[in-house]
Amino acid sequence: MSDSSNSSVETLDTLQARIGYVFRDQDLLRRSLRHASMGGTSNERLEFLGDRVLGLVVAERLFEDFPITDEGGLAVRLNALVRREACAKAAEAAKLGPHIVMAKSEARSKGRTKKAILANACEALIAALYLDGGLKAAREFILRYWELMFDGLASELRDSKTVLQEWTQSGALKKKVQPQYRLSGRDRTGSCAFIYGGSTRPGTQAGKRKRLDETRSRAGRRASSSRSSWHMDRLGGSRRNALWICRRVGCH
């Protein structure tokens, strides 16, 4: 008996009507929605291509929307829009879940609502649109289902190093310092650690802690969109040199 799960899959005609594009190559569309749990040819290769097409279209849109933003600012916005959570959100908006063909075991484990599976299917569909209808078809899909995410980008969105620099100069510490940076993690984690040199450790007294929290909150509001926030955490170190980290959390 086959372990495939197709009973809840809506027709491809329904999907094509929803996204406003009819494929000339229907097999290409089917392949973009075939999860790896089915074995054989899956959507993984299309996912690889779709990720690159998505990056190009998003980068082009950001280049046009933020004409005076430097490369670093554009890169932060790009990362926010091409990450897994953003792709999954677009897939949910396009209602791709019911169309994904997967093994019964995967379907029983709520595979059609898993962010990773939705994101992969979305990128694969973008690749299928690109191969079938060119960049125009892929761009129209992306700009349609990413529109709210573009609108939600904070105009003050900054990378972690910039936020950290502002925090050290804001008065949260006993004296203004020039931090020594040590990058931590991959770009998408948005983290940046530094050494604070001083005889007094910041935040050890109640008053300083309150001021630190208030400053940290202000920095977070300036540097984040409605979907993310910045945290300043003390990682350890000596009395004279405390290691702090600025990291972005909760970006979905």
Brief digest:
The protein has ten helices and six strands, in the order E-H-H-H-H-H-E-H-H-H-H-E-E-H-E-E.
Can you lay out the helices and strands and say which pair or pack?
Elements: E1 4-5, H1 12-19, H2 26-32, H3 44-65, H4 71-82, H5 84-93, E2 102-103, H6 104-108, H7 115-145, H8 147-151, H9 160-168, E3 180-183, E4 191-197, H10 206-223, E5 229-237, E6 241-249
Helix pairs in contact: 2-7, 3-4, 3-7, 5-7
Descriptive notes:
50% of the residues lie in helices and 13% in strands. It has 252 residues and is an alpha+beta fold. Helix 3 packs across helix 4 (71-82) and helix 3 (44-65) packs across helix 7 (115-145).
Overall radius of gyration = 22 Å
Number of helices: 10
The CATH architecture of the largest domain comes to: Orthogonal Bundle
Strand content: 5-15%
Shape: elongated
| CATH first level of the largest domain | Mainly Alpha
Q: Termini, distance in Å?
A: 39 Å
Q: What is the total number of structural domains?
A: 2
Q: Let me know the largest β-sheet.
A: 4 strands, antiparallel
Structural class: alpha+beta
The third-level CATH topology of the largest domain is Ribonuclease iii, N-terminal Endonuclease Domain, Chain A
- Low-confidence regions: 1-9, 185-191, 198-212, 218-230, 235-241, 248-252
